[in-house]
Amino acid sequence: xxxxxxxxxxxxxxxxxxxxxxxxxxxxxxxxxxxxxxxxxxxxxxxxxxxxxxxxxxxxxxxxxxxxxxxxxxxxxxxxxxxxxxxxxxxxxxxxxxxxxxxxxxxxxxxxxxxxxxxxxxxxxxxxxxxxxxxxxxxxxxxxxxxxxxxxxxxxxxxxxxxxxxxxxxxxxxxxxxxxxxxxxxxxxxxxxxxxxxxxxxxxxxxxxxxxxxxxxxxxxxxxxxxxxxxxxxxxxxxxxxxxxxx
Length: 247
What we know:
Elements: E1 4-9, H1 14-24, E2 30-37, E3 45-48, E4 51-57, E5 68-71, H2 75-87, E6 91-94, E7 125-127, H3 131-140, E8 149-157, H4 164-173, E9 176-178, E10 199-206, E11 213-221, H5 222-240
Parallel strand pairs: 1-2, 1-5, 2-4, 5-6, 6-7, 9-10
Antiparallel strand pairs: 3-4, 8-11, 10-11
Helix pairs in contact: 1-5, 3-5
């Protein structure tokens, strides 16, 4: 596979900056990294793989000439630039809410539904779910066929009674951390999480009044597990499936 031209729109924001850091240590071969933001950020210097990249003003750009474009600058920018960049032939991975409800745009969490990227969608755009949705989907995958951290108190009801031991066993096989059971006082909080790349699940307990009900406490870093990491994993999945970089 050839080295790719990659663009990050919103490169100076929190998600864009985290995405740059993760892309730098990823196995993705990069020929050229183009960083774009508002005019106020134009001219900033960012080091990437021993090179200096200069931030460019988005509104002064015509054709991005890119293979993959990450949009991390909000819904208004995504609505304008998503279809425009996709029409130029790029695979667009959008971090806003703009395309999440579009039936033609795949909404992807690579650990959950990788098959939806077995082919390129007609619009050429992939939507990155909300970061709280990503962590919840990853946490619920085995039970169901501040800081930059989100916490969720989750209540589920199943068709059949739930066995707590089985829930813990299933969670242990997944990429998440079950910290404690019902009687433990230790559980993850936004300030103290062990591995920021994991989804941390704790306080798992069956509803004493309903054996089909299950409570969970779910904590994850919304930049690393959410917006930035998931966007990068989408890109890696698209590359692995030959959707970009084959020519």
